[in-house]
Amino acid sequence: xxxxxxxxxxxxxxxxxxxxxxxxxxxxxxxxxxxxxxFARWTNLSETxxxxxxxxxxxxxxxxIFTPGGELPFAGHPxxxxxxxxxxxxxxxxxxxxxxxxxxxxxxxxxxxxxTLAFAAPPLLRTGPVADDDLAVLLPALGLAPGAVEAxxxxxxxxxxxxxxxxxxxxxxxxAPDWAALGDYRVGVAALLPAEEPGDLEVRxxxxxxxxxxxxxxxxxxxxxxxxxIGEERLPPVYRARQxxxxxxxxxxxxxxxxDAIWVGxxxxxxxxxxxxFPP
Length: 280
Prior knowledge:
6 helices, 280 residues
């Protein structure tokens, strides 16, 4: 058996078991895509990541991100969890103030602010309203009437997200999707929170096509939502989103527009550390 250093961390929380767990395999040189995919299926977490030496001289490390259903070019909670784990293992960034991650979406900057890590959201690959043909599938699959939706938009920064903004947070919390009807859609649903509740936005993320019916807390989706909702002035330049309540979690995501970048931040806590075995 081959042994690799391993961590499991919880992202977008300071309290273990309340955020989105991430499996991290360090020093993964020698593992091919099939071995990575098999291990990701075995962990059965929303994402499992593999840290490798960078190919780009501007990067500090290279990251492969796998769901149980395949590889992603970019994802948010793996970016923060991988950066935390790389630093915890003794990684030292080349550039003062930033860690630079290389992944399928290119180079992503990550910075530390106190006990929070934040990444600069990559550019959106697809924007604009969701087409009527897509809505004709999505709304029945989510059990929504057209009047429940205030606005909709593609917010795809790699994983393929489309997003619906609902008029009511109660409608958001009551969603019980038809997973088979959703198929391969990767859809985020959000609603503004009332003034008496903490936070500004509540979010849910549905991705049954990659083996994760509902994702607990989703950095890439929250990044795309912030680019859309701050850009249209539906939310202020700095706000907080919560996600995971429907799954018994309590994840918090900090969003901020600074100059031309959207920064997506959260806390990370280590839960498991050791080594993991792979077949020879």
